Amino acid sequence: MESEAIRWHCTTRVRKFKGDIEEYRRRLGKEEGERRFFAEHAPYADRTIKDNVLLREGIQELWNLLVGETATVYSEANARIGVGDSDTTAVDTQTALQGGNTAFAAMDAGFPVVGALADKKVTFQATFGEDVAEFAWKEWTIDNGSSANKNLNRKVASLGTKDAGSWMLQVSISLA
Questions:
Q1: 142 close to 74: Cβ distance less than 8 angstroms
Q2: % of the chain beyond a pLDDT of 90
Q3: Full-model pTM
Q4: DSSP-derived 3-state class of residue 116
Q5: Beta-carbon-side half-sphere exposure of residue 157 (alpha carbons within 13 Å)
Q6: Which alpha helices (H) appear in 29-104, and where do they start and end?
């Protein structure tokens, strides 16, 4: 019997900026504030990391969404990116970030974005402003909101220690 396989590919990009995106959001509103902040601030660091672990609770939530069962979508209104300070190995049975310090940020305006059919990907993006998530970033996840809190994935890798400025985390997931 021939088997078929779908591969889950994840690429994460962290971009670090001087300045506080929250100041722009407060002054100009979420969408315009983010647009202006990124137009006026070049990142001082930009790093890309591959792979992550798809979590069982995220798989179950995707199946429920697929067949119309009760589930919460990973939309701009609900999805969040969370970061934490644990370096505990990611395994598919985990249901949360493992760190003693964790923080979540809502999606940036217009995210998540579903790519063209040929891309077979979705991209999530959130930016953590100054005074938020100021600890060592060693893990991250995407979940579908503080109420549902179903973690789609988890990745462990050191991204550095945030002590000022605004850090953007962009997670692109594709199927092949």
A1: yes
A2: 89
A3: 0.94
A4: coil
A5: 16
A6: 30-40, 56-67
